[in-house]
């Protein structure tokens, strides 16, 4: 089965998710600088989520770039990932509006955690199809960044009930680590 | 007429439908666990509809994969299917908010029924173009799953006025049956 | 310049327009049959607009199918058409909510008229590039349906202030005329 | 790395941005001509932003048309541009609703300025990959229009606090200058 349509569909869903978050940016009531202030925290949460969705799109792009075909299980593993990503706009808005209260901060981490988990399932579904000697397997290597993410998100969820600001810092730090371009697959392709 | 653009358009519409349902997930009023509770039923309805839209996308993907060309009648049969699918977010939200009241549960089943019916029309429009000896005709076979769906959705609509929970269980059961990958077309292609 | 990306962009915008109208279908307040009733007129307006957007997508599909390349003027003529189509959801909702009051019915006709006009400009921009002997020119012929549309929409706008129901009937009639598949280009291609 | 998927993703995001602005066009309360009047300023702001997004799509189209491949840095520079464009619907609505108050007018200019800056970064990221002798470098030339834009948007932001109508006129003038087709790249391709 070709990969063209699963890429197109994923591009569509991710494009909508990343843009829909804008709708959460409510227009201020007044028209002066003071009325802009309450939008601030939601805006920061929006920027963080924009970067996370961008990271997922980049990784998704690289992941499907290195394989030639997909099977039915991959279609569903991909939909499962899109499901968790599609929850990001709602938890982003809750996080921003609550000024980082405990539950919204924890739930934001849960969605990040489940998305990371769904990505892990997707990668391993594709690995099962392509085998341990495939370009995909070599490109992934030991996937240290993926494993670190799970630990960091988990810590974020737990800490949200004690020090939500530390959770937010952890989420931001992990985004920064991912932003540093993941050259594994690019290196592979150039060899 | 090539099938590329009808696939791209359908991917776009289905991607929007599946993501728009997120917008129905209203952010809770408060910021504690208790304020999350009313979101629960809407969330469950959202998950069910997400799976249904995913099933339709998968089946749509397989259906157009096996044919080489489309005609004008197929364009309209496809739009007719997209029309019913595009009503899913609205009835999903009504179902979730009503905590499975009779009419919302029945209407949800009506939309599932009409979408199944529209899919049936789409398949038969394509069969008329490709003939009874086509790969499509052999892949479809007797379409037992499609016929079972119609019966189950009909039962769900009727039962909604007596035992709405049974209707919801039927809708969920049918989604589970569809989730079991439909290997008919995949088998065909591998032969 | 290739036509692939202008097709993809138009597909995206039209897919969003056709799906966004769903968001206008507000979920009823109550959960019984009576609470569904106010949704009725909006639903009818939605169906009509869905068919109109479907017609435009079909015609757009055929139009770009017959040409091989586009120029900068076509990009803007196409954006101009998309602009008027993107106003359809708003006027559809106004029409439905007003139960066909004079101004909403007239404005709906104005948007149909401007979209028809924008389509006319788009076609003629492409004709200027491809010349009077092109396949496009032969396929279009005298474009009687396009000219009839303009007259019918104009009549609808004027009659909206006297007999809005007649306007709505005219809009519906014209949609039905367009729905009868336009075989001109298909014929051309088969020859 | 191929450019197909970055084009498709950008098309998706830009298509959603341009269409989402419609959602900001609130349906009037009443159903007569008077109730349409408050929609007027928002409508004008919408038209201006529609043209700006159209200009960015056109320039983006031309920019990616002239290159053959993209790298990881381009993916992120492109996402950065999409981020600022995705803020346009919100500031458009704020501008329209405020009837051009100082802060909304200034903020609109800030978003235009940041989008122009992001486009500049994108172009220069691509130039670094392709070198000063590439078709891209020759097509861009001295980029006088891009530099003029930055000056005009900056002037608009400052003037918003004194003469907001002049700012709006400047934004409109700059859109008109961009609308005049940028034939640089088209010329290049024809040579």
Automatic annotation (TrEMBL), chains A, B, C, D:
Which molecular-function annotations from GO does this UniProt entry contain? potassium channel activity; proton channel activity
For the keyword Transmembrane, the answer is: yes
Q: Protein name, please?
A: Potassium channel
Top-level taxon: Bacteria
| Phylogenetic classification of the source organism | Bacteria, Pseudomonadati, Pseudomonadota, Betaproteobacteria, Burkholderiales
Q: How is the protein disposed in the membrane?
A: Multi-pass membrane protein
Task: Please give the chief subcellular localization of this protein.
Answer: membrane
Organism annotation: Paraburkholderia solisilvae
Where, by residue number, does the polypeptide cross the bilayer?
9-27, 39-58, 70-94, 106-127, 148-180
Signal peptide per UniProt: none
